Amino acid sequence: MNLFRHILFGFGAVACLSATGFAAKKTAVETAAVDSGALAAQRRDLEVGRSMETFFNIFREVSLYYVDTTRPAEMVKHAADAMLGELDPYTEYLPADEMADFETLTTGKYAGLGALIRKSSDGRWIEVAEPYAGTPSDRAGLKAGDRILSVDGVDLAGREVAFASDRMRGKAGTVAVLEVRPVADTTVVRTLHIKRERIVMPAVPYFGWIGEEEQRVGYIRLNSFTENCAAEVRRALETLLRQGGGEEMNGLVLDLRGNTGGILGEAVKIVGLFVPRNTVAVTTRGRIEAMNAAYRTVGEPVAPGVPLAVLINSGSASASEIVAGALQDLDRAVIVGQRSFGKGLVQSTRPVGERGYVKLTTAKYYTPSGRCIQAVDYTHRNEDGSVGKVPDSLIAPFATAGGRMVYDGGGIVPDVETDVEYLSKFAANLIGAGYVDDFANGYAATHAPVRDFEVDDTVYGAFCDWVADKPMAFESATAKLLGQLQRTAERERYAGRIGGLIDSMAVKIRDDRRGELRTFAEEIRGVLADAVMTRWFYEAGRIAYMLRRDRTALRAAAVLTDRGEYTRLLTVQGL
């Protein structure tokens, strides 16, 4: 009780000091006639003080008089979440127990075994989804599909993935004891002693060559903007340049699809690999002057003359858009793919006590042409609290270094737009149910690795037989619409006249598992092959395999090797 009163007094003193300071400043305003901006700031100071006093009075009354025992830390977390949720989705409170996950996101590092885990398709067990190459789990022989029965004596049957993950992680150097039922022989149980290590997730999971061999077009996949990712890109680029004969390399594809961003400084370093030293890559502007900055490239570029294409899609956001936007504005790269996400906001982390932090939006960023590509306007909310896209009337044109028109307010628009390649709902359901992974686990465990693997008729037939009687909640969009028609006809009393027609249509479109497997065979063969290749050759092998049929990446390679088209795209508007 005494401690609580001291805490409350301290904040009450802050409120009183704020009010006293305001009174003194008010006198100064009246006598010295300071400008309206200063007066507005003083009024804000008073509002802050009063609001803090109100909040802590509420907190005190609830803590003292609520009928049941309260949990102060949880109350503060909920209050912070509600308060910050009114601002934007990126501003959030991070208590101490969530900082480890935040560190993993920003650094790509954590202490553990180095394996991705999942729930089994029946929901009863924890299974290895993918051991990362070269990590403790990989060296211990864990394979995708291995069932983890316990960790350090804790039974994992029926547990959630987060529960199992917490127990597999731990201090580097400690030993985890796992009981495992191998996918290759489910009749035995193995006990593994695996030493935890500091796991570093590579930001560049793959680099190599794309297209025909004679095209000599390099490819680098960047998954995240974590610490030192620019150094990884540099090493990959230097390796490709050596393999390709230096500047004789015909082009480079930098793949940022699905990359949701990360550290701004790493984005600036990556831009600096391709443009002259001291080039402004991005500027930031905030409400306070300390947040205003211009970020310039440092050091000499590694590949200043290599033709460059950057791949983006709707999952490319934040730092990905800084790189793509800067290289587009500087007419240094052709952007290929689909419109990016449109996140033009910058976050900073600030300590708030109890080893917690607030991740706070402190600025907007602007590409070299001066545009902010933020697509959602969180400043002006609708009456119901919802937010909308920046209206077309407020979208403005900007000029690249060479005079091409680009636009703000809606992400990065590619110079070469390609179609989105969607999976059918049926194929997505097969993946979501875990059946693609289950089949791939068994196949990979019982067959020798093959680099030029294909899902031929024999393999696909085996999959179709295996999945035929598996439970799966699937209803096609056509079947759903027909069901709506049936209900509407009954409500409007047309069922008597058209019921027979609806019934006959239902028979023709009734979901037939074998029929769907035939209709979507091509794409299902593709995802099956990708899953098997991941189990044999890890993520790098899967990416290399997928590139052979990646239409967007192959389109970029074609642009780079057609110097006429490449030059036109960087110099002429609208092509």
Q: What would you say this structure looks like, in words?
A:
The radius of gyration is 29 Å and the shape is globular. Strands 3, 4, 5, 6, 7 and 8 form a 6-stranded antiparallel sheet that branches. Strands 10-11-12-15-16-23 form a 6-stranded mixed sheet, with helices on both faces. Strands 1, 13, 14, 17 and 18 form a 5-stranded antiparallel sheet that branches. With 575 residues, it is α+β, with helices and mostly antiparallel strands. Helices cover 43% and strands 19% of the residues. It starts with a helix and ends with a helix.
Q: How many individual helices? A: 18
Q: Ends: how far apart?
A: 71 Å
Largest sheet: 6 strands, antiparallel
CA-atom Rg in angstroms: 29 Å
Q: How would the global form be characterised? A: globular
Would you count the extended β strands for me? 23
Task: Produce a short descriptive summary.
The protein is 43% helix and 19% strand. It contains 18 helices and 23 strands.
Give the SSE map.
Blueprint: H1 2-32, H2 36-65, H3 72-85, E1 92-94, H4 99-107, E2 109-112, E3 115-119, E4 126-131, H5 136-139, E5 147-151, E6 154-155, H6 161-168, E7 175-181, E8 190-195, E9 197-200, E10 206-210, E11 217-221, H7 229-244, E12 251-255, H8 264-271, E13 280-285, E14 293-296, E15 308-312, H9 319-329, E16 334-337, E17 345-353, E18 356-366, E19 376-377, E20 388-389, E21 397-399, E22 405-407, E23 416-417, H10 425-432, H11 435-446, H12 457-467, H13 477-491, H14 495-509, H15 513-519, H16 521-546, H17 551-561, H18 563-571
Parallel strand pairs: 11-12, 12-15, 15-16, 16-23
Antiparallel strand pairs: 1-18, 2-9, 3-4, 4-5, 5-6, 5-7, 7-8, 10-11, 13-14, 13-18, 17-18, 19-20, 21-22
Helix pairs in contact: 1-2, 7-8, 8-9, 11-16, 13-14
